[in-house]
Amino acid sequence: MVIAVFGAVLLAIGVAPRVYTAVYLWRRGESVRPALRRLYVPATAWFGLTLLVGAINHTAGGLVMLVFVAVWGTVLIVGLARGAWRLPTAVRLIGDPEAWRGNRRPYWDRGADRAP
């Protein structure tokens, strides 16, 4: 019972910012899609879900843990692949004081192509 309560608390802590932001945007009359799609879901929510489901049924808890490991393993593999892909450029730019001038904009700066 204690594990289920602890899992529910972790799940609530992990999902609360997303729900709070969605309610805030909904009250302002804006779209709630950014809150539901773009907010980071921390590992505590996944771990809380694993504990909660595992307290109810051990087999289902194991399956949730397997999905959790698969998702985070994929995130790590993709992150390492991106880093390895950009490593030669980063090594080539070491020591060049003007390297930042020709560097691409970060992926989150979508308005960089437009003139101010």
What does this protein structure show overall?
This protein is mainly alpha-helical. The chain has one domain (2-97). The protein is built from 4 helices and no strands. The longest helix is centred in the middle third of the chain and has 36 residues, at 58-93. The N and C termini lie far apart (58 Å).
User: C-alpha Rg, in Å?
Assistant: 21 Å
The ordered H/E elements are HHHH
Which stretches of 5+ consecutive residues score pLDDT under 50?
A: none
Class from secondary-structure proportions: mainly alpha
Number of separate structural domains:
1
- Which percent range fits the helix content? 55-70%
Count of DSSP H/I helices: 4
Tell how many strands the DSSP assignment holds: 0
Q: What does the main sheet amount to?
A: none
**In what range is the share of β-strand residues?**
under 5%
User: What's the N-to-C terminus distance?
Assistant: 58 Å
Shape from CA axes?
flat
